[in-house]
């Protein structure tokens, strides 16, 4: 009786693994097939795009920084006269960079982790997106 139970368990595991492997192979074959237009077009569109000439450098705050003051100042430099959007947790800000490309904006933060998305559009229509993660807590005040 014990031998039969052990053999049944081993055969069941083997059949289960064979079926799972078959599903895995079929899934990868469908994803990379040349008849699947969405996967091949995505690769072609990404390779045909010219790299964006819009560059943005954040001066402050630093990525993954801990901030104890809200609102906090987001500042940096980008292309001259570029339009900038900053999407915070609760509010969005839209403004234009100066003639030198410098920008500053006070952003309200929610308690805890804040995801801030900085998007810059230059005069040609090119865009540059940066994600900034900040932690706001008054417990870390100096």
From TrEMBL:
Q: Does the keyword 4Fe-4S apply?
A: no
Per UniProt, the keywords (alphabetical) are: Membrane, Transmembrane, Transmembrane helix
Residue ranges of the TM segments? 6-24
Q: Where is the composition biased (Polar residues)?
A: 42-57
- Annotated region described as Disordered, given as residue ranges: 31-63
Q: Where is the composition biased (Low complexity)?
A: 32-41
Top-level taxon in the UniProt lineage: Bacteria
> What is this protein's name?
Bacterial spore germination immunoglobulin-like domain-containing protein
Species this protein is from: Candidatus Woesebacteria bacterium RIFCSPHIGHO2_01_FULL_38_9
């Amino acid at each position: 009786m014990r031998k039969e139970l052990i053999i049944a368990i081993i055969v069941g595991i083997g059949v289960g693994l064979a079926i799972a492997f078959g599903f895995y192979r079929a899934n990868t074959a469908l994803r990379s097939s040349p008849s699947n237009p969405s996967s091949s077009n995505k690769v072609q569109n990404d390779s045909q795009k010219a790299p964006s000439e819009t560059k943005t450098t954040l001066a402050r705050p630093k990525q993954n920084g801990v901030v104890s003051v809200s609102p906090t100042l987001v500042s940096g430099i980008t292309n001259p006269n570029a339009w900038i959007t900053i999407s915070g947790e609760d509010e969005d800000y839209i403004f234009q960079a100066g003639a030198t490309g410098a920008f500053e904006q006070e952003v309200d933060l929610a308690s805890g982790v804040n995801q801030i998305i900085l998007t810059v559009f230059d005069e040609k229509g090119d865009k540059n997106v940066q994600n900034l993660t900040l932690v706001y807590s008054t417990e870390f005040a100096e």
